[in-house]
Design goal:
heterodimer, A: mainly alpha, B: alpha/beta, six-stranded mixed β-sheet, three-stranded antiparallel β-sheet, 11 helices, signal (chain B), Bug_dom1 (chain B), Tricarboxylate transport protein TctC (chain B), BUG (chain B), membrane (chain A)
């Protein structure tokens, strides 16, 4: 271990590698900021540029882009509620509310700090026991992944603060949109209307640009532009209170990202949604989530970063990509003639350890870059939105066009811009829609695979202890709050999660397979939700009335801008 | 800054490229092509898959080999991925008559039109060269009771045998069908969306066997994670690890699977242009840098040009129609 670390430092600490690591994270931050470009496309675009480099240098730079983009994606999510990557959608909820309150500086700073802490913890774990984690990942077959996806889906109840039924409906809308394209089981093209571009599904990045950036612009055209925020200097600095509140959330987020990141294909978007869900259940200040609570910013960011790092576990030890970006990186390995797989650590110790050490260096550079820059970035809010948004949309659309070289992307952006505007006018939450769209294909795939494994019987999910535990967590996610609220009503400050256990498990499998079941589920919850909503209204008169996406912040009536 | 400039550069280049190409195609259709035609400026090589994948690597090897020959033009790779290749190949229809444009393709270009309602067929493009054949090695988890492909077929007569399959239009699907037809049995397929997922399923023992690419199989077999059952090639692999793996034919199973890799020019180009590209292709494919690519990706080196390639494709199309329709 020590020998390996020394070897890694020797290889990573050359002037050339340090320089390219720096360039990588800087480029990554910019790529992350631009909503039209994600880390996977950023890495893909730059692979050809790095072909002339030494393999280690090239991989260090590409990994730098990967790490940098995680940091960058949050910046626009917080400042203008336009996430740079899917995994930052959740950061818009509380991050943007913090920015609206003039606390963009602390939001950006805590995001950087939380991401850094999560990265450090997960990197140590990655280096120390990657092979152990790899074997954990292998115990997650299709039935277990199906349970994970159901757990991810169950977080919808958390993001549908105003009305669970509407949230579930939006989530279903996302799932329905995700059915467009060639299906993995039979290879049939669904809802493609003869458009070959739709064969691979509705492109996610374009949907996000449309919903968030363009939707917001249209909304502002309707309502008149929001006044720029003039934050006072002392509001730009993190307080001790902020730091104190962030510690448990960072650790929770890191842990969740950790577990989700190890699983091949689960992705950091899911991790960030789950981390927010966990905050909503376990945080001391869970009532403030959605109104600009620092926990809601730091937990998902920590989860995203630790999951991004843990994605390297299956990538390096098994030769199986952990996520979209590591899949592209895996391709890069092959281009340099390096064969990732179980023998990579043995055959290429200099390369692997050099790369891992460069992750440390990259994250330190990112913290040094981002922490002092947080107040500077916050100044962007002084620019009137009427200038800012057109610029963002212009760069996003150009970016989206460049990636696919296709005007189809532009149409998707425009169509979803209108949908996003309509959703804002109708006060519908966007986060469940995005969640549905992200989870849809993964859910369907694991459902089809589970059914194939069980010869048409998805009941095999209940034969797996791991899947049962995860389903139990999903039950807790949906009904836990219900018991909690009841307890809170009778016993002051009572905090005990429901122990619904696996008895309710069957309800969940049907939840994924039939629309009616979800309706039933929602019906059950509805009565409680109404009471809870009423209670919330009474206790928090200043609470924002807009959807969980928190985006109405533009000019919603309660704000009175 | 660098990235922004680069992106702007790429956009600008592709925009001007588009403009230039669209005007070119109009001109080419009207004017006759001079005898000494050579491509000038930028030659775009379209790849219908994402960067880093097998097709992309072949396109980059080709671009590099062409550029090293210094033929007076600059070859660039452009990725247009989506729909298992359908997006990129459909878009290449728009290059009709343009001599300055190449397309990297593989067996799936024969299969997609059989399964889906796409606008193109391989005959819409001009076959230039086939430069390699790809096949599959059938592997099982290390602790599998199966030792060769006959064991698989025998087991399938009485029990469920689960096959991990990545994609329904690629080599994996052909292997499964070929083994089924040769043995007169049926396997239960568990569909995955990438070969990485198939490897995970094998490692965790969720499937009984799976066909995987040689370059994926070799390191896992070397590490003792996979047992090789048989190779779907006509002859054994020339590789230290895979040389011991018997072919299906050797085991008495009449099944070979090959997925060609090659490239096309646009449809409707002049004979002079077609001949130019066939000659350029020969020079590029025989170059050292291209050999390195074939070796790295563990492909079977095969070369066919022009009409020979077209005949091969016609034959291949018949085989695929027999399997997929």
């Amino acid at each position: 271990m020590i020998d390996n670390l020394v070897l890694g430092f020797q290889n990573a600490f050359t002037p050339e590698n340090l320089l390219w690591c720096f360039i990588g994270v800087l480029l990554g931050t910019i790529i992350g900021i631009l909503p039209g470009l994600g880390s996977s496309t950023g890495v893909a675009i730059l692979i050809p540029v790095t072909l002339a480099f030494d393999p280690l240098t090239a991989l260090i730079m590409l990994a730098g882009i990967y790490h940098g983009s995680q940091f960058g994606a949050t910046i626009t999510a917080i400042l203008i509620a336009t996430p740079g990557e899917a995994s930052s959608v959740v950061s818009t909820l509380d991050g943007y509310q913090m920015a609206r309150k003039g606390r963009a500086g602390p939001a950006l700073a805590i995001s950087a700090l939380g991401s850094f802490t999560a990265a450090m913890i997960s990197l140590v774990a990655l280096m120390a026991v990657a092979p152990v984690f790899a074997s954990v990942a292998l115990t997650f077959g299709p039935p277990e992944m199906l349970a994970v996806m159901i757990l991810g889906l169950s977080t919808i109840v958390v993001f549908a603060s105003r009305n669970v039924l509407i949230g579930v409906a939006m989530g279903l809308g996302g799932l329905l949109l995700a059915t467009v394209g060639v299906d993995v089981g039979s290879g049939t093209a669904r809802f493609a209307f003869g458009q070959v571009e739709l064969y691979s599904g509705i492109p996610f990045v374009e949907v996000m640009i449309g919903l968030f950036a363009l939707g917001e612009l249209l909304n502002q055209l309707h309502q008149g532009a929001v006044k720029p925020i003039r934050a006072r200097f002392r509001d730009l600095i993190l307080t001790k209170e902020d730091l104190r509140r962030s510690v448990p959330s960072t650790l929770r987020g890191t842990l969740i990202g950790f577990v989700v990141g190890i699983l091949p294909g689960a992705g950091s978007t899911l991790a960030s949604f789950m981390a927010y869900g966990a905050e909503k259940k376990f945080s001391k200040n869970r009532d403030q989530l959605g109104t600009g609570a620092i926990e809601g910013v730091v937990a998902p960011d920590a989860a995203t970063n630790s999951s991004a790092n843990m994605n390297f576990v299956p990538t390096l030890t098994l030769g199986v990509p952990g996520g979209a970006t590591t899949a592209v990186l895996l391709g890069a390995f092959l281009m340099y003639g390096i064969q990732p797989g179980p023998l990579l650590f043995e055959n290429q110790p200099g390369l692997v350890w050099g790369l891992l050490v460069s992750f440390f260096i990259g994250n330190v550079i990112l913290l040094v870059l981002n922490l002092p820059m947080a107040p500077v970035f916050a100044q962007v809010l002084r620019v009137p939105y009427s200038y800012l948004y057109p610029l963002i949309i212009f760069t996003s659309i150009v970016g989206a066009y460049t990636v696919a070289n296709n005007s189809f992307s532009v149409w998707i952006v425009l169509i979803f811009g209108v949908i996003g505007y309509a959703m804002k006018r109708l006060n519908l939450p966007m986060a469940p829609l995005v969640l549905g769209l992200v989870i849809g294909p993964l859910l369907e795939k694991s459902l089809v695979q589970t059914s194939a494994l069980g010869d048409g019987n998805i009941g095999i999910v209940f034969e797996s202890p791991i899947a049962l535990v995860i389903l139990g967590l999903a039950v807790l996610m949906v009904f836990g709050g219900r018991f909690q609220k009841k307890l809170t009503q009778s016993v002051m400050g009572g905090r005990k999660g429901g122990k619904g256990g696996t008895r309710n498990g069957s309800a969940f499998v049907t939840e994924t397979s039939s629309v009616e079941a979800v309706g039933e589920l929602a019906d059950e919850i509805r009565a409680d939700e109404r009471a809870a909503a009423a209670a919330a209204r009474d206790s928090r008169p200043d609470r924002r009335g807009d959807g969980p996406s928190g985006r109405g912040g533009g000019t919603p009536p309660p704000d009175g801008d | 800054m660098l990235s922004l400039r680069k992106k702007m550069g790429v956009t600008a280049a592709s925009l001007t490229g588009l403009l230039a190409l669209s005007s070119c195609s109009v001109l080419d259709a009207q004017a006759t092509v001079p005898e000494d035609w050579t491509p000038r400026g930028a030659v775009k090589i379209t790849v219908a898959f994402a960067p880093g994948g097998g097709s992309d690597r072949s396109a980059r090897a080709l671009a590099q080999a062409l550029n090293e020959e210094d033929l007076g033009f600059n070859a660039n790779v452009e990725n247009k991925d989506g729909g298992s290749g359908a997006v990129g190949w459909s878009s290449f229809l728009g290059e009709e008559g343009n001599g300055n444009s190449l397309l990297v393709a593989e067996g799936a270009i024969n299969i997609l039109p059989i399964l889906y309602d796409v606008e193109f067929e391989y005959t819409d493009f001009t076959p230039i060269a086939l430069f390699a054949e790809d096949s599959r090695v059938v592997v099982a988890p290390a602790d599998s009771p199966f030792e060769d492909c006959n064991d698989l077929i025998d087991a399938a007569r009485t029990d469920r045998v689960l096959a991990g399959v990545s994609g329904l239009t690629g080599a994996d699907a052909i292997v499964r069908t070929a083994l089924e037809q040769a043995g007169g049995v049926e396997f239960d397929a568990v569909p995955f969306s990438s070969s990485g997922e198939v490897v995970t399923a094998l490692l965790s023992g969720n499937v009984d066997y799976a066909p995987v690419a040689a370059s994926v199989a070799a390191p896992q077999i070397e590490a003792g994670e996979f047992t090789a059952l048989c190779s779907m090639t006509a002859e054994r692999y020339d590789d230290p690890v895979l040389a011991d793996v018997e072919t299906a034919r050797e085991q008495g199973i009449d099944a070979t699977v090959s997925l060609w890799r090659g490239f096309f020019a646009a449809g409707g180009i002049d004979e002079v242009q077609r001949q130019y590209w066939i000659d350029a292709a020969k020079r590029a494919i025989d170059s050292g840098s291209f050999d390195q690519y074939i070796e790295q990706d563990m492909l079977v080196p095969t070369e066919l040009y022009g009409d020979d390639f077209a005949d091969y494709l016609a034959e291949y199309q018949k085989e695929m129609e027999a399997i997929f329709s």
